[in-house]
Each structure stands twice: as C-alpha cells, then as structure tokens.
Amino acid sequence: MQHAVDDEENILSDLPKKSIDTGSGLERVALVLQDAGNIFEADVLRPLVEVAERLTGHRYGADDRDDVSLRVLAEHGRATTFLMADGVLPSNEGRG
How far is C-alpha 41 from the geometric centre of its chain's CA atoms? Predict the structure, then answer.
C-alpha cells in the first residue's frame, strides 16, 4: 500500500511508509510462526478449545467428529466476544 484515499475530495496522497498487506491475518501468522497444525492449535485459539474441552469432557485430537464440535465452540465463543464488544447483545429482536 502506498496511497491514502480521501473519499470526500477524491484525492490520493502518499502514505508516510509504504507497506504490503499480505491478507494473512493474525491467526495465520501465529500458525506459521508456532508451527501449529491449524489455527485451533496455535496460542490464539487454543485456550478457547481448552475451555470447550473442560465444559464438554471431550479431548481435542481424540476423535475427528468431536474435534469439529470443539472448534465450532471455540470459534463461536470468539465471535460472540467480538459481537458483545461491539455492543451487540443477545436478543430475539433487532440485531441481537
């Protein structure tokens, strides 16, 4: 990236420092740096998988079908955290 766009005035200006956006994301970078098998085994999501293990009594890595369920619980827990941080609260009305 080398330009900033002012949408109101339709002007391009140079950024102070040029950069490259790889689009890899935090989880993928952690996955590679930690040599983890998948993002759920990297330290970003592993703690959520461990909570799901404790709550369900199932161990991650013991059964493929259980692994999918544990990953779904971890991902939904993370998504719910971000939704609540953005002010979206559970409700059967509106955006909740």
Answer: 13
